[in-house]
Design a protein that fits this description.
This protein is an all-alpha fold. Helix content is 76%, strand content 0%. The protein has helices at 10-40, 46-73, 82-88, 100-127, 131-155. It is elongated and about 60 Å long. It binds fe (ii) ion. The site of fe (ii) ion (FE2) has 2 residues, from loops.
């Protein structure tokens, strides 16, 4: 088995890199969805949600950078073109959403899909003892699960 500088299998690291690029591409779409929600949101909860979506897209931007730098650490190349993002994206793309409940539903739905991708990565990174990827992904999972709980609570009238 060929080993890289981190002591991980080169082949297995390449698989992780590909999966991380898929996650990052989906996060880029999530980021852009959130910018759209931040801009287009209307109604009596404008000030709350306008700010909340800004907080979330800033958080996504940080996570995108962490994923890209993990890809580089593993010896891979992070995707950085819109073409690559769209090719790997499975999230629904929100366009001109201005209604608060629709906006929150898109966020919840996207977070759930991101969680699915993350759990699949975690399953594999755990198998190959890639603790660096493991700990990053488990932090993401923990934070996103909490976000889902909060947005679900918000949806209850
Ligand atoms: Fe703004």
């Amino acid at each position: 088995m060929k080993i890289n500088k981190l002591g991980l299998s080169v082949k297995e690291s390449e698989v992780i890199v590909e999966k991380l690029n898929v996650l990052m591409s989906n996060f880029q779409v999530h980021y852009q969805n959130l910018r759209g929600l931040h801009w287009n949101i209307r109604g009596k909860r404008f000030f709350d949600l306008h700010l909340k979506f800004e907080e979330l897209y800033n958080d996504s931007q940080l996570k995108i950078d962490l994923i890209a730098e993990r890809v580089l650490t593993l010896g891979g190349k992070p995707s950085h073109t819109f073409e690559a993002y769209l090719e790997k994206n499975i999230l629904r793309i929100g366009e001109n959403i201005s209604k608060d409940t629709e906006a929150v539903q898109l966020v919840i739905e996207s977070l759930v899909t991101l969680l699915e991708i993350e759990r699949e990565i975690l399953h594999f990174s755990d198998e190959i003892n890639d603790e660096g990827t493991n700990s990053m992904i488990s932090d993401f999972i923990k934070e996103q699960e909490k976000m889902i709980w909060m947005f679900q609570a918000w949806l209850e009238e």
